[in-house]
């Protein structure tokens, strides 16, 4: 069932959409938002904290005259060492992308997502202890955090495949994903303040504790599917099942069409697009605080605030972009393929231009403005590559996300190392090179996705094969397995 047909059905709940607590699927979206808030606040905190951990601090020594006494760095790490520390999260993260998509089908995406974030939060509380124990211990803890957090994105698509009607797919996914950028903003702002006032250790204590509280709420409330949720209304459950065109039986073992996946042009276009967006994203995510502090000469708190600004803009735009993407499909202004292509490639092209302009100017106010616009435009790209997996094959969406996010993780590993090597002295020309590389990769992603994207259910997908078998059975005199569902039509 496509988005237009799905929008004609009613969930029987007489309440506006902003009253999310009346609809069980939007309670899930609300908690998923804070799940991704934690995913990125726990990932980003070190990018700001490491500035405080390694800066040359000074204190005023009052003796009747104005004088300053230098204090040694708490951790004497050069830019290359910091690059390895910042990328260590992804050493573990890359190994659990495919695993996350696979086990979420077997165990339930809700359990795997919750455990992934919960364990990461617990390990975050141990980060100060690991840092004081030594460079190797810090890398080991961060890599383990990445290992558990690596399941989160593949798992959420497994959850959407059970909960998201086609007419609400972009909206539900992008609202949840906006937690990524809200968490990034909160982490950058809070980390700078905490590091300056209470000390950098409290960055990890406070954010880790919040993640643990979220874990308890998620595990108590969120269920694998509408069929297993005791609090969902019958009409909402039937509405979701009908729009997804499946019966309430569920529980079938999924056999993923690996050959079809790995030979699909649409899948590879999605992979390249995901890698491209994440290269630029992780470049700025891990390096922007250092760039603003060391090259643009902002104070730590100001650097933390200004580093958060682009992600605040993106977080605000993401829900708007998701709503517009769904609206374009429901009103039949654009096909699903056109929505994915125009939103994704238009954003990439804008990001290419603004990264180039910002790199060319390289002055505090105009460069930060260009970076903010570039990151903000990424909200529209997420309506393409980040949701596209559900179009191609909903039941394999978790695995598809695992594959594309594996390549994205390579970007997360490489960008801090490459940036660290290129900006050894922190000169303006070195940073220009970093931004030019990001702009070039955005452009490659734009061209590749434009010619390879598809928003249609693929012939190799599990759903397409099931429908073909069902059609053959119907032609032989058998009806649909879920024809007993009676839906209320919207007036």
TrEMBL record:
Region named Disordered: 465-491
Function: Receptor for CM101, a polysaccharide produced by group B Streptococcus with antipathoangiogenic properties.
Extent of Basic and acidic residues compositional bias: 465-474
Pfam families (alphabetical): MFS_1
Cellular component annotations (GO), alphabetically ordered: basolateral plasma membrane; lysosomal membrane; synaptic vesicle membrane
Taxonomic source organism: Anopheles arabiensis
Protein name: Sialin
Ranges where the Major facilitator superfamily (MFS) profile domain occurs: 27-457
PROSITE patterns on file: MFS (PS50850)
Segments crossing the lipid bilayer: 26-53, 84-104, 111-131, 137-160, 172-190, 202-222, 266-285, 305-330, 342-362, 368-387, 399-422, 434-452
InterPro entries: MFS, MFS_dom, MFS_Na/Anion_cotransporter, MFS_trans_sf
Membrane topology: Multi-pass membrane protein
BP terms from Gene Ontology: carboxylic acid transport; monoatomic anion transport
Alphabetical keyword list: Cell membrane, Cytoplasmic vesicle, Glycoprotein, Lysosome, Membrane, Symport, Synapse, Transmembrane, Transmembrane helix, Transport
CDD domains per UniProt: MFS_SLC17
One Gene Ontology term of the molecular function aspect: symporter activity
Keyword Oxidoreductase tagged: no
């Amino acid at each position: 069932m496509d988005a237009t047909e799905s929008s004609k059905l009613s969930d029987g709940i007489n309440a506006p959409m902003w009253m999310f607590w009346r609809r069980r699927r939007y309670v899930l979206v609300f908690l998923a938002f804070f799940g991704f808030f934690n995913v990125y606040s726990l990932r980003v905190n070190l990018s700001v904290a490491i500035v405080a951990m390694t800066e040359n601090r000074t204190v005023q020594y009052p003796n009747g005259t104005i004088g300053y006494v230098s204090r040694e760095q708490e951790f004497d790490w050069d830019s290359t060492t910091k690059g390895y520390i910042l990328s260590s999260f992804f050493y573990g993260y890359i190994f659990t992308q495919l695993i996350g998509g696979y086990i979420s089908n077997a165990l339930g995406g809700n359990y795997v997502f919750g455990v992934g974030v919960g364990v990461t939060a617990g390990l975050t509380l141990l980060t100060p202890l690991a840092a004081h124990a030594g460079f190797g211990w810090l890398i080991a803890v961060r890599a383990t955090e990445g290992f558990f957090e690596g399941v989160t994105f593949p798992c959420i698509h497994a959850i959407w495949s059970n909960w998201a009607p086609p007419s609400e797919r972009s909206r539900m996914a992008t609202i949840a994903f906006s937690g990524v950028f809200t968490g990034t903003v909160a982490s950058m702002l809070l980390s700078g303040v905490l590091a300056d006032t209470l000390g950098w250790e409290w960055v990890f204590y406070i954010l880790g504790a919040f993640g643990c509280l979220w874990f308890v709420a998620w595990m108590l409330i969120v269920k694998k599917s509408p069929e297993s949720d005791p609090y969902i209304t019958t009409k909402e459950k039937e509405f979701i099942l009908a729009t997804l065109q499946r019966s309430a039986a569920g529980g079938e073992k999924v056999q993923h069409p690996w050959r079809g996946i790995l030979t699909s042009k649409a899948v590879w276009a999605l992979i390249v697009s995901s890698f491209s967006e994440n290269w630029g994203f992780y470049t700025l995510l891990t390096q922007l605080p250092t760039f603003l502090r060391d090259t643009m000469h902002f104070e730590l708190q100001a650097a933390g605030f200004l580093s958060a600004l682009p992600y605040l803009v993106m977080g605000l735009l993401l829900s708007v972009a998701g709503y517009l993407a769904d609206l374009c499909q429901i009103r039949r202004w654009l096909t699903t393929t056109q929505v994915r292509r125009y939103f994704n490639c238009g954003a990439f092209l804008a990001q290419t231009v603004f990264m180039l302009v910002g790199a060319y100017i390289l002055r505090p106010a105009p460069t930060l403005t260009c970076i903010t616009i570039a990151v903000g435009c990424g909200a529209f790209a997420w309506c393409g590559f980040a949701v596209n997996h559900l179009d191609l094959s909903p039941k394999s969406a978790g695995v598809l996300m695992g594959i594309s996010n594996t390549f994205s993780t390579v970007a997360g590993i490489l960008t801090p190392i490459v940036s660290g090597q290129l900006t050894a002295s922190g000169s303006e020309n070195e940073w220009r090179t970093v931004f030019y590389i990001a702009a070039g990769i955005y452009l490659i992603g734009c061209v590749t996705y434009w010619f390879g994207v598809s928003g249609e259910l693929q012939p190799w997908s599990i759903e397409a094969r099931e429908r073909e078998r069902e059609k053959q059975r119907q032609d032989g005199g058998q009806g649909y397995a879920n024809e007993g569902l009676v839906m209320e039509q919207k007036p």
